[in-house]
Amino acid sequence: MDILNYLPELISVSIIAVFMVISPGADFVMITRNSLFYGRSCGLYSSLGIGLAIWIHVAYSIAGLAIIISKSILLFSLIKYLGVAYLIYIGYKTFTSKSDLELKNEVKEVRLSPLSAVKLGFITNVLNPKTTLFFLSIFTQVVNPNTPIWVQLIYGLIISSAHILWFSLVSLFFSHPSLVDKFNLHKQKIEKVVGSVLMAFGVKVAIASNS
Fold this sequence. Notes:
Mean pLDDT: 80
Strand content: under 5%
């Protein structure tokens, strides 16, 4: 089958994906945090983790679980509150950080391994209710159930690539040496702010409606 037969659907998915990925949320705060605190490499690896996590959402959407989740308040609430707990946990750890190391590039890079950075990005996105809602809406409202799996995989590739590209750019911006130097001057205050923002996101998600 020709992909052009699904061009209107592909365009719709792509446009929604772009607006979804650039809208501020838990993923953005996490990438900003990792890039500032641990360096450019950490931010880029975390971006990769987010891109990989997208495929979990793609998998359950293609498998038809998106419809089940969209109709199950209990199941969606479970995903939602796991995400809440994780955000509050990471936010609390950031808020209470007592590290006094200077964040020079060569020092930052060794404080968090590539695998740990990937895991942080991966778990943050997998448990992000915003991303779950996005896939629920895309695969139940935009994507036709009769769309071939190979076409849906292309949609997944577009969405995953958009996340990796955007958050890599965010990482490059927030790990710029001029920002790092300024960050070093106000590290403890920024840790409090970032930790508070992460916990606030968790609380906001917790009190948000399931609808």
